[in-house]
Amino acid sequence: MMYDAFLLLGRSSDTELYPAPRFVTHIDDQAIRALTKYYSQALPLSKTHGVAILDMCSSWVSHYPAGYKQEKIVGMGMNEDELKKNPVLTEYVVQDLNLNPKLPFDDNTFDVITNVVSVDYLMKPMDVFEEMRRILETSGLAIMR
User: Considering only CA atoms, which of 74, 110, 107 is closest in space to residue 91?
Assistant: First the structure.
C-alpha cells in the first residue's frame, strides 16, 4: 500500500496484547469531562430518529453524555467482554483493525463515527480512514481525538 510509511514497525498483533478485558480509562477525569461536554455539543440529540453511530476502538465506556441513546450505536473494539459492558452500545463488532482494516459495514451506513484516544495505535491509519469515509454518510461527522 502507498501508506507504508505509517506502519508501526516491531508491533505484535493487538489481538495478542488484549486477550483479557481491561476495565480502565485511558484518559484522566478532566479529559473525560471535556470529551463528554464536547460530545454533548457535537453528537446528534439523544433519541434522534434514524441516527446511526459507530464508536471505533471502543471499550466498556464511550464517554458519551449520561443517558445518551440512539437507535443504532455500534461499538467496534478488541475485547468482547469490554464491549458487552458498554451501556450505550446497541450492538458490537470485535475486530483487530491492524489485522483487517476493512470495516464490515455497507457504504453510507453511519451518521457519526467516533474514535477517541486510539487512532495513534492504528498500524494502517490511512486504510482505516478510507474505510471510514466509505461507511460515513456524505454529510456525516467523524470525531477523532
Answer: 74
55-94: pLDDT as tens digits = 999 999 999 999 999 999 999 999 999 999 999 999 999 9
- What sign does the CA torsion over 81, 49, 129, 106 have? positive
| DSSP bridge partners of 93 | 76
In this prediction, residues 92-119 reach a mean pLDDT of: 96
Kindly state the cell numbers that stand for 71.
Answer: 437507535
CA of 4: how far to CAs of 36, 62, 134, in Å?
34, 30, 21
Asked whether the beta carbons of 92 and 77 are under 8 A apart, the reply is yes
As given in the structure block, the three cell numbers for residue 135 are: 461507511
Q: In the chain, what are the domain boundaries?
A: 1-7+51-145
* DSSP 8-class letter at 71: S
As a whole number, the mean pLDDT across the chain is 89
How far is C-alpha 123 from the geometric centre of its chain's CA atoms?
15
Domain 1-7+51-145 class in CATH: alpha beta
Element (H, E) at 58: strand 52-58
Asked if residues 112 and 144 have their Cβ atoms less than 8 Å apart, the reply is no
pTM for the predicted model, two decimal places: 0.86
